[in-house]
Amino acid sequence: MAKTPTAPRPSQSDAVPASDDAATVPAKTRSKLLLFGAPVALLLVLGGGLWFSGALSGLMGGHKPIRVSGPVFIKVPEIVANLNVTDGRDSYAKLEATLELANSASAAEVRHDMPRIIDVFQTYLRAMHPSELQGASGTYRLREALINRVRIAAAPNVIRNVLFEELIVQ
C-alpha cells in the first residue's frame, strides 16, 4: 500500500479572517444590546420594586381606603318583669341588654323602635318559668328567642345579636 501525499493542514494561527467587518459585527451587536438592554432591565427592576413596596401607588394617586363602619351597640333600658309561676311565690327577672347592629345607618331607626323592642322583651320574659332561665342552656335559649323577636320588631333594620349585660332571676 502506497501512501498518497496529502496537503498540509493549515493551523489556526495560519487562518486569515475573510474580512474585518465579519469579526466586528458580533461586537457591535453586543455593545448595542448592553447600551439599550441594561437601562431597560434596570427600569423594570426598579419599577417592580416600587410597585411591590407600595411606593408607586402613592405616587400615582393610589386608592383611598374604604371606610367600613363597624358594629354599633345600642343599650336597652333595664327591664324587670315578673315570671310565670304556679306555686304562688313571686319570681322576678332583671335584664340589662345591648343590641348589636350591623351598621350605624339604622341606629336612629332602632332607637325610634325601642318602645316596641322593650315590649317584646317584657312580654316574652313574663311568659317564661324560672326553671327555663336556669343554666347556660336557659340563657342561650333566651338569647336566641329575643334575637328572633327583636329582628321582627326592628325590621328592616339588621340586628346581629342581643348581648346580656346582666340577667338576674329571683
TrEMBL record:
<dbReference type="GO" id="GO:0009425">
    <property type="term" value="C:bacterial-type flagellum basal body"/>
</dbReference>
<keyword id="KW-0969">Cilium</keyword>
<dbReference type="InterPro" id="IPR005503">
    <property type="entry name" value="FliL"/>
</dbReference>
<dbReference type="GO" id="GO:0005886">
    <property type="term" value="C:plasma membrane"/>
</dbReference>
<feature type="region of interest" description="Disordered">
    <location>
        <begin position="1"/>
        <end position="22"/>
    </location>
</feature>
<comment type="function">
    <text>Controls the rotational direction of flagella during chemotaxis.</text>
</comment>
<keyword id="KW-0472">Membrane</keyword>
<keyword id="KW-0997">Cell inner membrane</keyword>
<keyword id="KW-0283">Flagellar rotation</keyword>
<comment type="similarity">
    <text>Belongs to the FliL family.</text>
</comment>
<dbReference type="GO" id="GO:0071978">
    <property type="term" value="P:bacterial-type flagellum-dependent swarming motility"/>
</dbReference>
<keyword id="KW-1003">Cell membrane</keyword>
<dbReference type="GO" id="GO:0006935">
    <property type="term" value="P:chemotaxis"/>
</dbReference>
<protein>
    <recommendedName>
        <fullName>Flagellar protein FliL</fullName>
    </recommendedName>
</protein>
<keyword id="KW-0145">Chemotaxis</keyword>
<keyword id="KW-0966">Cell projection</keyword>
<keyword id="KW-1133">Transmembrane helix</keyword>
<keyword id="KW-0812">Transmembrane</keyword>
<keyword id="KW-0282">Flagellum</keyword>
<dbReference type="Pfam" id="PF03748">
    <property type="entry name" value="FliL"/>
</dbReference>
<feature type="transmembrane region" description="Helical">
    <location>
        <begin position="33"/>
        <end position="59"/>
    </location>
</feature>
